[in-house]
Structures are given as C-alpha cells and as structure tokens.
Amino acid sequence: MKIVCDNCKANITIPEGNIPKGRKVNLTCPKCKYRITIEPEKDKSGKKVPLVSEVKSAKEPDTLGDGFLELLSSDTSFSGLMESGQPTCLICVSDPKLKRKYENIVLKLGYQPLEGVDLPDALKKMREWVYDMIIVDENFDDIETGENGVLIYIERLEMVVRRKMFVVVVSKRYNTMDTMAQFLMSADLLLNPSQEIDLIPLIRYAQKEKQQFYTTLKESFSAIGRPFKV
C-alpha cells in the first residue's frame, strides 16, 4: 500500500499485511515526523478499507548529530505498525532476564511492549513511532562513551512530545526513585534492578505524580493568563 504524507508529500510504502483490517492505525512520517492516521472506510461492497484521512503534528528532532543514523528514507516499509488505542512501550534493555521481567510488567500495565534490539534499532523504532513509555538501561547496547543515544534522542524531543512519554531509566548506580538522579537523567522514574521492589504499583504511582504535576502546572499558567501547550 502506498500513501502520501499530507504535510510533506513524501511517498510511503507500507506492506498490506501490516495494516489491521477494519482498524484505525497511526504512524509517523519518516521524513517530517508528522502523525498520519489511516482510518478504515467502507467501499462499494460494504467492506472497510484503509484510507489516509488525517495528519496530526508530532514533531521530533531531525537528527541526533554525528555518529547517529540518518532519518529513514521516504520509501521505508513500516514493518512494526501497531494498532491504535493500545499504549506502547519500547524496552531498551540488553540483559535478557531483565528484559523479560520488564516485558511482563508492562503487559500487566496494559502496554504493548516492543524491543529495542540495539541502539540503531531503538533509534529507528523511535523515529517510526511516538511511544507512551520507554524503559532504557543507562548501559544499553554496551555503551562505553557514557552517552546513552536513546536518552540523548529523548532529551532533544520537543517538550510537547517529551512530556507525553513516561521515561524509565534503569541504573545500578543510584537508588530507585533517586530524585536528583532522575532530574539529571531527564527520567520520570529511576529503577535500580538490584533492589527488589513491586514495580507495578511503583510505576503507577510515578505516572500519577507526573500527571498531577502537569495538571498543577497547567492550572498555574491559566491563572496568569498564559497558554499551556498540551
């Protein structure tokens, strides 16, 4: 299936089998990063067929700088499309045991998990999709430079996109929920895998705290007559 981005007019090729029949699907244009919504529409026979009907903005950085992947070309096939409506979680953890643990946890939380195999794969997936949650080990993909490419990418997102993500950083250097470390890493929650904690209520608590923070911030902006971008 071929579609055209209404924003930048890029041609995008999507394998027919990757689009759930009769379901609305969202994808991000690999060229301009605008959100495209493919909605089902009935044809003359009464069957539903996908149709591009809407483009929503979801701008992201154009590049991560030297040493990182270039943006996907306009003829890239979207092999990892996910159904609209279910929240998604990208897991960037190299340790197989920890990865399985976090996959089970996010499934119980109602998220659709997707694995970042390595740094190039994780960056590619983040350019294709805006995830609701990202779990990333600070040493993901055997990073030796001390600069985590996934975290760099997240830090350079526009704030209107970033604050809709819940970012969990896995680190053995700090205690779980270390406030200062969370601030320095631009994380919503820091987890120490060595500490045995029930993660499901912890993640729910941290998500609620974040939501409350932005609700209060929005109310404060409204009180002084300033707009607050959602």
Distance between the termini: 33 Å
What name goes with the CATH superfamily of the largest domain?
Answer: Response regulator
User: How large is the share of residues in beta strands?
Assistant: 15-25%
Structural class: alpha/beta
- Uncertain residue segments: 48-81
CATH architecture label name of the largest domain: 3-Layer(aba) Sandwich
Shape descriptor reads globular
Q: Could you give a short account of the major beta sheet?
A: 5 strands, parallel
Query: Roughly what is the average pLDDT, rounded to an integer?
Result: 75
Helix content estimate: 25-40%
Strand line-up in the sheet with most strands: 7-6-8-9-10
* Number of E-state strands: 10
- The third-level CATH topology of the largest domain is Rossmann fold
CATH classification, class level of the largest domain: Alpha Beta
The total tally of domains equals 2
Secondary-structure element sequence? EEEEEEHEHEHHEHEH
Number of helical regions: 6
Rg from alpha-carbon coordinates? 19 Å
Topology readout:
Elements lengths: L1 E3 L6 E3 L11 E4 L6 E8 L5 E9 L31 E5 L3 H13 L3 E4 L3 H10 L4 E5 L11 H7 L3 H4 L3 E5 L8 H6 L4 E3 L7 H25 L7
Parallel strand pairs: 6-7, 6-8, 8-9, 9-10
Antiparallel strand pairs: 1-2, 3-4, 4-5
Q: What labels would you give this structure?
A:
230 residues, alpha/beta, Rossmann fold, 5-stranded parallel beta sheet, 10 strands, 28% helix
Describe, in plain words, how this protein is organized in 3D:
There is one protein chain. This protein has six helices and ten strands, in the order ββββββαβαβααβαβα. Mean pLDDT is about 75; it is low at about 50-80. The radius of gyration is 19 Å and the shape is globular. By secondary structure, the chain is of the alpha/beta class. About 30% of the residues lie in helices and about 20% in strands. The two termini are about 35 Å apart. The strands form three sheets. A five-stranded parallel β-sheet has the order 7-6-8-9-10, with helices on both faces. A three-stranded antiparallel β-sheet has the order 3-4-5, with no helix packed on it. Strands 1-2 form a two-stranded antiparallel sheet. A hairpin with a 6-residue loop joins β1 (about 1-5) and β2 (about 10-15). The protein folds into two domains: about 1-85, no CATH class; about 85-230, Rossmann fold (3-Layer(aba) Sandwich), CATH 3.40.50.
